[in-house]
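Per reviewer request, we include the raw input and output of the structure prediction for the construct analysed in the revised manuscript.
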Amino acid sequence: MFFNFSDNILYSNIKVHNRDGSVDLKSSGWQFMEEIVARRVGEENLKLFESKALEYIIDMSGGVLREYIRIIRDSAVTALTRDKTRIDKRVVEEVVNDLKNTYQSQLSEGDYEMLSFIFHQLYF
């Protein structure tokens, strides 16, 4: 059976931050993000993530599923290449910094100005 992969499917972002930027580890969005990993790796394999590492992954993903999966995947690859048996926060921080550098290299000065303008319009 062949499947058609040409359709775009839009998934909503998951709310993992409060309006003030704080997080609630008991919120439905946060719990949903944890459930995604639990279903993917199996509840018994959640020990592959240090708890602070998984919290940081959820926080840094901003609730964007594509980024969430990307951070997990890249963290797992990095941990494996270093012969680690768990994904720790240090590995995740390195992966997130690499992603930040990738995104920053694609932004122009005008992009930064526009993002700053939008940020200040929303929060000040």
